[in-house]
Amino acid sequence: MMHVNELVLASHNAGKLKELQAMLGDAVKVRSIGEFSSVEPEENGLSFIENALIKARHAARVSGLPALADDSGLAVDALGGAPGIHSARYAGGGGDAANNAKLLEALRAVPDAERGAQFVCALALVRHAEDPLPIICEGLWQGQILHAPRGSNGFGYDPLFWLPEHDCSSAELDAEQKNRLSHRARAMAVLRARLGLADV
C-alpha cells in the first residue's frame, strides 16, 4: 500500500485544489503545482487516464513529491463522448460560458430522452516521475444535459448537468453535497480506500 502524507496536485485550478483537499481530509497535505512550476505538460493522451498520468508524472518531476493528477470532463452520449478530454477547451479556450454555449448549440435538436451524459474523473497518483505502478482510479457521475443553465455553484458544465434523482442541476448542489456525489468524489473514494485512509 502506498503511504502518502504530502503530495502535489497537478492543477492550477484553485477550486479543484480546495475540493480535493476537502475530500482527502487532514491526513494528506495537498500542495499546488503552482508552487513549483507554471509550465503545463502537453496533454496528448487519447483518454482521461493517459492525460492524468502525463500530468502526474510531470508534477512529480518538477516538485520531487508524490503527485496526484485529475483529468476530468463531460462525455455526452449523443455526441459520441464529446467534449470528452477536450472539455476544458471545447470552445477553443473561451472559458466556461463559451463551452456551455457551444454544448447547448450542439444539442439544440436533441430530445430529452437522448441527452444522457456522464461526468468522468480519472485520478492518477505516482510516488515519483518514473513510478511503474501508479494508482489509477475512475469515477462516473450519470446525468442529463439541460436546455439552459440552472444554478450558480460549482464550475465548468455544472449548470447544464441535470441530476434526475436529485431533481436539480449539479450547480444547484452545495459544496458538501457535490463533494459527496460527484465523479471526483467517486474516484476519490476509491483512492482513499487504496491509500488506507478512513472515511472523512
The helix content is: 25-40%
Low-confidence stretches: none
Distance between the termini: 19 Å
| Strand arrangement, major sheet | 2-1-3-4-5-6-7
Q: Identify the CATH architecture.
A: Alpha-Beta Complex
CATH topology: Maf protein
DSSP strand content: 15-25%
* Largest sheet composition: 7 strands, mixed
**Oligomeric state of the chains present here:** single chain
Overall pLDDT score: 93
Global Rg: 17 Å
CATH level-1 class = Alpha Beta
Number of domains: 1
Structural class: alpha/beta
Q: Judging from the principal axes of the Cα atoms, what is the shape?
A: globular
Count all strands and give the number: 7
How does this model look, in words?
- This protein is of the alpha/beta class.
- The chain has one domain: Maf protein (Alpha-Beta Complex), CATH 3.90.950.
- Helix content is 29%, strand content 22%.
- The protein is built from five helices and seven strands.
- The chain has helices spanning 14-24, 48-63, 96-106, 175-181, 183-195, and strands at 6-9, 29-32, 67-76, 116-126, 135-145, 161-163, 168-169.
- A hairpin with a 4-residue loop joins strand 6 and strand 7.
- It is globular and about 50 Å long.
- The two termini are 19 Å apart.
